[in-house]
Write a structure and sequence with these properties.
Largest sheet of chain A: none
Strand order of the largest sheet of chain B: 1-2
Largest interface: A-B, 25 and 23 residues
Radius of gyration of chain B: 17 Å
Oligomer: heterodimer
Shape of chain B: globular
Helix content of chain B: 40-55%
Number of helices of chain B: 5
Strand content of chain A: under 5%
Largest sheet of chain B: 2 strands, antiparallel
Helix content of chain A: over 70%
Distance between the termini of chain B: 46 Å
């Protein structure tokens, strides 16, 4: 093969994904190993198989990085997650209260019924997403360099609760279509929490691998 | 009459993948790091192994005191990242010996090709 292996780079999104969760010096060696093997596979089998290999390894490695990141500072990360959970329970009611207070103040129900419906459905859902982003940023700040570990753990807790309550609602013979719509809206909250973690991580890392301190 | 009883804790044994990893480390000697360990296991067992699984097991083994690690120099092929080399400790060698003896005792007298294929 004539191409220079040094000029080959692994898939940037996969590398970015790994860097989000790689938060220790040891994780740095792991990423180095993956890059080394990528170069080797690219020079022997070609770039496309090497890229496929790198993606496969990335997806299989993220759970390990997540667990390792959590076990690196279990107490601190768990505190951030529990704090985030309690904060979410407090904050998640605020958009509802604020929106209904405004709707009542301006008598929207009587004068603009369609606006009332819009704000009491989509407005509230959007408010929840904003509240989740706020909580996600809070957790990411507290978790320091383990922002992705803490926000992902919190999102997983909420996902578990959402799925459990979804199954309960199904068992109560809630129409399946409504249950799916509800599920999608509810999933926006954990996604927003993780997005907040990603934003904080990227702000702190500026394209470099961070070490958890 | 006195008996010598060796007390093993609940986690003082090697799992199947741990066993493979320790054997790979022993084979590779001072060349044992993530890439070579993964390749050695893939080459000899013909099963795809993720680098994450290798590191997770190595971390566990290090926690048990069966292996220790040290850092190598960073290289350009690795994006300037250093290698983490692993070495089996005397405790790890004792554990792999125990596992090998147990395996030999359990398989003694069994004819795998004729009876179980």
């Amino acid at each position: 093969m004539s191409f220079q292996t040094d000029s080959l780079h692994p898939p940037s999104y996969a590398l970015w994904l790994i860097n989000l969760f790689a938060c220790s010096e040891d994780s740095e060696s792991l990423v180095g190993d993956m890059q080394e093997e990528f170069s080797h596979i690219a020079s022997t089998a070609g770039v496309a198989p090497a890229r496929r290999w790198f993606w496969r390894q990335t997806l299989a490695t993220i759970p390990y990085l997540f667990i390792r990141g959590f076990l690196g500072a279990p107490l601190w990360t768990a505190t951030a997650v529990v704090g985030g959970f309690l904060l979410m329970r407090t904050v998640s009611r605020l958009p509802e209260m604020a929106i209904f207070a405004l709707l009542a103040k301006y008598r929207v129900f009587e004068n603009h019924f369609s606006t009332y419906v819009f704000f009491s459905t989509y407005g509230m859902a959007l408010g929840h997403v904003v509240a989740s982003l706020f909580v996600g940023f809070g957790v990411a700040v507290v978790a320091k360099r383990r922002e992705m570990i803490a926000t992902t753990a919190l999102a997983l807790v909420f996902c578990t609760l959402i799925v459990l309550s979804w199954f309960v609602s199904i068992s109560w013979r809630w129409p399946l279509h409504d249950a799916f719509t509800w599920l999608l809206w509810q999933c926006a909250d954990p996604v927003a929490i993780v997005v907040a973690g990603i934003v904080m991580r990227n702000r702190r890392s500026r394209g470099q691998i961070l070490r958890c301190t | 009459m006195f008996y010598y009883v060796e007390v093993m804790s609940d986690r003082d044994y090697l799992g199947e993948f741990e066993h493979l990893i320790v054997l790979a480390l022993l084979r590779l000697d001072d060349r044992a790091y993530g890439v070579t360990v993964r390749q050695e296991i893939e080459l000899r067992t013909k099963r795809e192994v993720s680098i994450g699984a290798v590191y997770a097991t190595l971390d566990r083994l290090e926690g048990k005191g069966y292996v220790n690690s040290y850092r190598g120099d960073p290289t350009p092929q690795r994006g300037g990242r250093s290698k983490r080399f692993f070495r089996v400790t005397p405790k790890g060698i004792a554990a792999v010996n125990r596992a090998q003896h147990a395996l030999r005792r359990m398989t003694a007298g069994l004819d795998f090709i004729r009876s179980y294929s």
